[in-house]
Amino acid sequence: MNWRQDAACREEDPDLFFPVGTTGPAVTQTEDAKSVCRRCPVMEQCLRWAMNSGQEYGVWGATSEKDRQAIRAGRRQYATSAH
Fold first, then answer.
1. What is the number of alpha carbons within 13 Å of residue 27 lying toward its C-beta?
2. Which residues bind [4Fe-4S] cluster (predicted)?
């Protein structure tokens, strides 16, 4: 089954999930997009897809670009310390 068929964002304007910038109105827009994600039944699958496919821009699985960068950095740190 394609998880995208059940995504809450299907009924939203796609531009909501791609704020321009990281300050001012973009902060509110990012939080609005994340609130859609938080009520989505496939939020985890969306985030997994975004991480696995290297999505650098937009809100995916209730995470912003900065959130995903932090997750990636944490994974690298864990991989380095585990060896």
1. 2
2. 9, 37, 40, 46
